[in-house]
Amino acid sequence: MSSAKEIKIYLKPKPEIDKIIKKLHYSGKVCVGSQLNFGVYLRGILIGGLQFGKSIDIRRTGPTIGCGMHDYLELNRMAIADVGIKNVESRSISYCLNFIKKNYPFIKAVLSFADATQCGDGTIYRASGFKLIQINKNKSILKVDDELIAKKSLDHVMLSNGKYLSSLLKSGTIADKTLNDFKLPNGKSALSLINAKPMPGFQFKYVYYFDKEIEAKQKFIPFSEIPKEAKMYLGIGVSSKEIVASGVQPEEEGANPIDTLQNSNEIKP
Asked: Which end of the chain is less packed: N or C, by CB atoms within 10 Å?
């Protein structure tokens, strides 16, 4: 029987890891700015990937975790196929964190998020030594005509009156004719934004500190204080007992691994 000890981690070109992430991750999307891309292998087969890079909101996020804008990385994406082996996810994270600590000593922390709107509340991060620093009700994932749209995708589309599409969610004062001239990422008219509503759920923010002095100065949320209504596993709100028993995070399950790729640049624990 296979065990997590058979897992091997390799530093790979971004396009290769993009492929497996798109196949396995619940969103089907990758982060364009990922800089460190790791492949997770079992007996020579690529079964998942982890991608690290700069935070999208690099200037504002750093101070919230006690770091400068270039002092931390974000775990942008993690997706690993369900191969029936325990601790694959936590072991993979451990390998990657050790690599970052050894090769990039100026990095003081790694940030990550758990989407308890569509997936899970971050069980695997808690099991991997991450600290919980924030729980927010979801405002970033919008439901528009039974489709989901990230609010950030509307922040850079300017209307003829100089306002951004995202502003419509607050004001609702733009003329219908103006809205009809603009399209959402799903191709529909911006008119549908009038009925846009945030998906029910929560967003969790986790951080792993290499710099223990910074960590000692931060305030964290005890895992025991996670509200019951915020807990989620496999996209379904569940009790704390069910979450503890699960041991894996939803976004790391699902599809089958892809074909064998050339193994190189193995990351040692």
From this structure: N
Q: What domains appear along the chain, each with residue ranges and CATH number?
A: 4-138+200-267 (3.40.630.30), 142-198 (no CATH)
**Which residue's entry shows tokens 């691994």?**
257
Specify the residue for token string 């998906």: 199
Q: Where would I find the H helices in 188-266?
A: 212-217, 240-246
Residue 14 · residue 263 · CB < 8 Å: no
Q: Poorest-confidence range of 97-111, 196-210, 226-240?
A: 226-240
Check whether 187 has a pLDDT greater than 50.
yes
CA 209 to chain centre: 17
Residue 136 — very low, low, confident or very high, per pLDDT cuts 50/70/90?
confident
Beta strand 34-42 with 45-53: parallel, antiparallel or unpaired? antiparallel
Q: How far apart are the first and last CA of the chain?
A: 22
Q: Please name the residue that has the structure tokens 């009700």.
A: 137
Pairing mode, if any, of strands 197-198 and 72-80?
A: unpaired
> How much is the average pLDDT of 137-152?
60
Element (DSSP H or E) covering residue 233 = strand 232-233
Give the count of beta carbons closer than 10 Å to the beta carbon of residue 78: 25
DSSP assignments along 112-180, one per residue: EEEEETTS---HHHHHTTPEEEEEEE--SEEEETTEEEEGGGGTT-B-TTS-BGGGGGT---S-HHHHH
Q: What SS3 state is found at 28?
A: coil
Q: Are 124 and 112 in contact (CB under 8 A)?
A: no
Q: Running DSSP on this structure, what letter comes out for residue 183?
A: B
Short-list 202, 211, 25, 47, CA closest to 113: 202
H or E element that contains 207: strand 202-209
Please name the amino acid found at residue 1: M
